[in-house]
Structures are given as C-alpha cells and as structure tokens.
Amino acid sequence: MIRVLIVDDHELVRTGIKRILEDTRDIRVIAEASTGEEALNQVREHGPDVVLMDVNMPGIGGLEATRKIIQSHPGLRVIVVTIHVDEPYPTRLLEAGASGYLTKGCAVEEIVDAIQVVHRGERYIGADIARQLALSMLPGGERSPFDKLSQREMQVMLMVTQGHSIQDISDRLCLSPKTVSTYRYRLYEKLGVDNDVELTHLAMRHGMIEFGQAPGV
After folding, report:
1. Is 212 part of any domain?
2. Residues 6 or more apart in contact with residue 190 via CB below 8 angstroms
3. Do 111 and 152 belong together in one domain?
4. By the 8 A CB rule, do 175 and 169 touch?
5. In a domain, 43, yes or no
6. Domain endpoint, select from 104, 137, 170
7. What is the Cα–Cα distance from 181 to 196, expressed in whole angstroms?
8. Residue 68 belongs to a domain with what CATH number?
C-alpha cells in the first residue's frame, strides 16, 4: 500500500485528488495539509511514502517545503502538482529533490501512474513539463529573469511577493533579519527593480505568482 499525503491550500483540489485516489487499490491517502508548514508536521506525524505538493501556498510554500522534507526524509518521494509549467519552477523543484512534476490539468490516470512510478524509485515528468524543460535548454530558448536567482533567493522572492514581512520571513526560514534584507536587495539588483511592488509585478508577468495572490497588487 502506497501512503500518500496531499498538500494544497485549496480544499476542493485536495478533495478531488483524494476521491480519485480512493478508487485505486494500492494507494491510500493518509493525511492532508494546506500549507508547507503543515506538510512538514504531517510528514513527521504520519510518515507517508509519497507527497503530492502544490507550489503556491501561504507560508513557506511548496518549494521550501519540498527542500526541507527531502533534507529530513531523503527516501520520501515528492510529486509537484501545480499550474506552473514554465521555467524556472520545474528545474527549481527538481533541484530541491522532487521526484515528479505534473500540472493540475493532467489526466486522472497520470496522477496514479506518477505515484506508482516514483514509489519504485524512478522519476516522473509530465509530457508538457518535459517539453518546456527541453525547449528552455535549446540555444536561444526564452529564459526567465528568475533563472538568475539561487534557491534561497527564489524562496525569499516568493515570500516577499506574498506580503510577508522581513521578520516573518526570518522566523519561517530560520535566517536573521539582516540576512533576509541582504537577499531582498540582491533580488532588486539581479532583477532590475527598485522596490517590492515592482518585484511583485515582474513576478506576476512571468507567472511566478498567481494574480490576486499578492496583497495590495
């Protein structure tokens, strides 16, 4: 029996995926979470075999949650299930340790296949994601300005654009406020923006955050 944890901030999505998996004989949903922080707690409490992970969620989000889960539980398999197809999300999540990457528009059978494949120790990348990864590697392929960011800079960027304060980011990522501020201004330099509002608009234009996710924008 493959034990699965579903992580998504939309209850409707979690319920839909759970119902899909209930009809599969060798898969059982043992827990759900709506934030990255909750996911870490559920992993410690229930010990799932596979985690289905959304990317954009309140708090630390799916990228940081994936990184932390794989660091503390190297044998656990994480499959990203998200609306984000374009780079740099696929590469960053796979670098963070994800074993699979699917879009929320994938077929029901593909979710089941992906869970079974990663549970065997293999990787599973949806066809649309694989195509984007291949295109981004071609000479002259369109690149996102966010490709310039390190893993930690990417995480700080996502939290800044979600409206988290420096102190809140500091607490959640276990960094000093001074270090967070340094990352923030390094983001401005690398991306050619002058403030959080410009940073947020740039992130929205490149599909890094969903419209309406950033407060006051």
Report:
1. no
2. 145, 148, 149, 153
3. no
4. yes
5. yes
6. 137
7. 12
8. 3.40.50.2300
Name the one residue in this structure whose structure tokens are 């696929």. 90
- Using CA atoms, how far apart are residues 10 and 171, in angstroms rounded to an integer? 25
Give the pLDDT confidence score for residue 188 in this predicted structure. 93
CA distance 106 to 82: 10
CA angle 107, 110, 112 (to 5 degrees): 120
In a domain, 103, yes or no: yes
- For residue 47, what are the domain limits? 2-137
Per the structure block, which two tokens stand in for 158?
A: 């996502």
34 and 96 in a single domain? The answer is: yes
Same domain? 96 vs 40: yes
The residue length of the chain stands at: 217
The per-residue pLDDT for range 13-46, each reduced to its tens digit, is 999 999 989 889 899 999 999 999 999 999 999 9
The pTM of this model reads 0.76
Each residue's pLDDT tens digit, 175-189: 999 999 999 999 999
Mean pLDDT to the nearest integer, 73-78: 95
Query: CB of 14 within 8 A of CB of 32?
Result: yes
For 8, which DSSP code? -
